[in-house]
């Protein structure tokens, strides 16, 4: 093994993912996340520095074993929060792009820092080898975001504008949770934000589900949304329409 190769802490790998970016994808879940989203269904990814230690070459070797399956897809790195290991992701994507693989990162954007030149340089390096960013907008309001995830959304919104300034293809994701984000005014704010992000190519609005409860039980953890029912798919569909209408209106009447 090359002495200089970085080690990534991998939670798990899904060989044929179909929901994390375009086409059939090789999905790498990295370990570690600083957020504590109340609806998180992967609390086993939170702890950093554990999991399987892998190099970028080892991951790519697995990818290329089934390469024909990914001709319309590529590699997605998710988590946890994959950009806790940003240098590793950049190394993996640099090697993947050199071999013509489509690269996608699914992130909350929480580690972005506009005021730290070193961190900004890291994001620039990542951006140069990333084809698509899946960005979670968990709540448009900073206080409500903190209540939902444990952190304000300021860096996340800055990251969204950073991606727009670099014309980086981005898909926005939003989870609708009954009693927390099932609010038309908040949906409209997401649409208004999107009006400032011409790089956004798609919007995925996902209904909250309760499939994570078992994991919390297994880990001996309290489930933060006990008693909150799963969201009906029609509500998520309606939320998506409200967001897109608000975006259109904001683009048509930018001063309002
Ligand atoms: S960002 Fe993702 S992995 Fe981290 S707590 Fe939120 S839902 Fe869970």
TrEMBL record:
PROSITE patterns hit by this protein: RADICAL_ACTIVATING (PS01087), RADICAL_SAM (PS51918)
TM helices/strands, residue ranges: none
Cofactor(s) needed by this chain: [4Fe-4S] cluster
Pfam families xref list: Radical_SAM
UniProt xrefs under SUPFAM superfamilies: Radical SAM enzymes
Location of the Radical SAM core domain: 19-246
Family assignment from sequence similarity: Belongs to the organic radical-activating enzymes family.
PANTHER family found in the cross-reference section: PYRUVATE FORMATE-LYASE 1-ACTIVATING ENZYME (PTHR30352:SF5), PYRUVATE FORMATE-LYASE-ACTIVATING ENZYME (PTHR30352)
Stated name of the protein: Pyruvate formate-lyase 1-activating enzyme
Native organism: gut metagenome
